[in-house]
Amino acid sequence: MPVREHASPAAPASLARSPRLWPVRYQLIGLTFALSMLLYVDRVAISTARGPITSELGLSDTQFGWVLSAFALGYALFQTPGGLIADRFGARLALTSVVALWSVFTALTGVARTFVTLLVYRFLFGAGEAGAYPTCARAFYNWLPVAERGLAQGINFSGARLGAAFALPAIAWLVSTAGWRLAFFALGAIGFVYAAIWWWWFRDSPEEHGSVTAGERSLIANSRPAGATIPSASPLRFATIVGSANVWIAMGQYFASNFTFFFCLTWLFPFLQRTYGLQATQAGLLSSAPLVGGAVGNWVGGALVDMLYRRGHLRISRQLPAVTGFLLAAAGLLGSLAADDMYAKVACLTLAVFGADMTLPPSWAFCIDIGRSHAGTVSGTMNMAGNIGSFVTSLAFPYLLIWTGSPSPFFVVGATLNAGAAILWIAARPDRPIAV
Asked: What is residue 234's predicted lDDT score, i.e. its pLDDT?
């Protein structure tokens, strides 16, 4: 039977008495969906505001690439520490702190006056955001039955894509009407509101939440491995992490996924605007199409993960959606090379992001499979590698363009990485948890 830890204060009494349309664990998924939207609205705002920022601060394309990569570097470096904190202190305290911290540096972006201060604020903003998804993974381990984790991850990450898709035209409008500095102040304030809501509503385990019925509590508890602890009693050793082939597979394939997606999150907007001479709102609407495709890819990948798992195919339920997704991503990137028309190019990139995002639900479900009570640490380590891919993307696109005079080499590199990730997944073993 699962080990029950000490109880924290019960959920608010008004919550416990109110009628519920859905089980409480579905409300959790809705709350993490909203978190994911906020995470990416804050993240994509810098790309949308590129024009006025570079003009006012006098930045070149390569300098702006370093601004983007500063975020990715901070985000990557603090993934594993963020997961360790979530595993040790629980998702309630960890996520409240994470959202409050990144909201501070979102707002401070609006006061940057020089290239160096902008670099520092974006690095610290990335470090603040780093713990968000590892903490969600730890919360899902505590709250969700195994057969529901794939679609839950898909819904969670679709919030990121829909948030970014919404942000591209909306922030472009806000920046053009109110200025880029005010836009970052407003986003920071929204983050503080979310942090307060999370602290008030969430509890680290269903047993501690006053709104969870006995039946739902039993359903969740029976899906946990025997001896699971909430939270973890001790951190996962570094030697254990690096000694796991599964962890290296997770890291390698996630590098490729982020390399593809981060281009659409950062450089697609200015690329389309410059290449086709578009207004900011036009470029924002076109740039949002691949992100909507990514949201659909998350739903499809997550539903496929859960469907195959319910049929008794643990390993295939992780491998098949991931391999299919990476092959589609490679095809989309290569297809974009042959597309001259902007609508055809965006359609190919939408296919690429649809495929890349199909791989997210199996990736995060895989981390929970092998990490178990250390799911935050393992998923944070995977996400660290993935965001090194984001860091590389931020610099690879402008520098390859300068060195070769063409964007084509960048897309070839991305397609090659996706094909390699598909091969990596063949060796993945979700049925072999990390030996602690």
From this structure: 63
pLDDT at 348: 93
Query: Which two three-digit tokens encode residue 256?
Result: 């490729």
- pLDDT score recorded for residue 313: 87
Residue given tokens 């890291």 in the structure block: 251
- With vertex at residue 45, the alpha carbon angle to CA 40 and CA 47, rounded to the nearest 5 degrees, is 110
CA distance 36 to 168: 15
User: Considering only CA atoms, which of 348, 350, 246, 340 is closest in space to residue 295?
Assistant: 350
* Among the ranges given (219-233, 271-285, 305-319), the one the predictor scored with the smallest mean pLDDT: 219-233
The pLDDT tens digits of the residues spanning 69-100 come to 888 888 888 888 888 888 888 899 999 999 99
Q: In a 10 Å sphere around its CB, with 0-12 CB exposed, 13-18 middle and 19+ buried, how is residue 345 labelled?
A: buried
Q: What is the DSSP letter of 225?
A: P
3-state SS, residue 112: coil
Cβ contacts of 292 within 8 Å, gap of 6 or more: 161, 162, 165, 350
Burial class for 228, CB neighbours closer than 10 Å (0-12, 13-18, 19+): middle
The contacts of residue 372 (CB under 8 Å, 6+ apart) are 141, 225, 228, 433, 434
Rg value, the chain, Cα: 21
| pLDDT at residue 10, rounded to an integer | 40
**What's the pLDDT tens digit per position in 215-269?**
888 888 887 655 454 555 566 677 777 788 999 999 999 998 888 887 887 788 8
Q: According to the model, what pLDDT value does residue 188 have?
A: 94
Assigned token pair, 83: 């997961």
Q: Which domains does the chain have, with CATH numbers?
A: 20-425 (1.20.1250.20)
Phi, psi at 242, each rounded to 5°? -75, -15
Chain mean position to CA 242:
22
* Rounded (5°) CA angle 256-258-262: 130
Contact 329, 290 (CB under 8 A): no
